[in-house]
Specification:
Elements: E1 9-15, H1 37-47, E2 56-62, H2 72-125, H3 129-145
Helix pairs in contact: 2-3
Length: 146
């Protein structure tokens, strides 16, 4: 049986110096620096076109090498750290959004239930036009609020 390999996607960036990739206002150490907003947006917009199951490879071509030596491991770690932190933040935001959605659903269900019970009680208390209008109005208000 032949094993299917996932296709990988490759992005190459050319920068004059490493400082172009990272936020210059970020005071944290280099390995945990935030990416520059424009670099981050560019990488994310490129990656959005592909399936999350396919690996993405980023190659950075540096025009001026730092005198300290090869920054490959440091840059790789910083980029992985940045997107890992961002993924964690998005997961927390999504979890909070779902929590808020569940709470809103419970409130809506409670309100529509209350409206329907009150509408039923009004319907049983009389058959006049006013009772019918009140009953139907509560039913509509409950479902619209839901």
């Amino acid at each position: 049986m032949r094993k299917h390999t996932r296709s990988s996607h490759h992005l190459e960036l050319r920068v004059h110096e490493l400082a172009q990739l990272f936020n210059s206002m970020d005071p944290t150490p280099f390995h945990s620096k935030a990416l520059d907003c424009e670099a981050e947006t560019f990488i994310e917009s490129w990656a959005r076109g592909f399936s999350p199951k396919n690996p993405l490879h980023l190659t950075i071509h540096l025009q001026h090498m730092r005198p300290e030596g090869d920054p490959t491991a440091l840059v790789t770690g910083a980029i992985h750290h940045h997107f890992s932190d961002k993924a964690d933040l998005v997961r927390r935001d999504l979890r909070d959004l779902f929590w808020q959605g569940r709470i809103s659903l419970l409130i809506g269900l409670a309100f529509v239930t209350l409206c329907l019970f009150v509408a039923e009680a009004i319907g049983q208390s009389g058959t006049s036009t006013a009772h019918t209008i009140a009953r139907e109005s509560l039913t509509i208000v409950g479902w619209v609020a839901m």
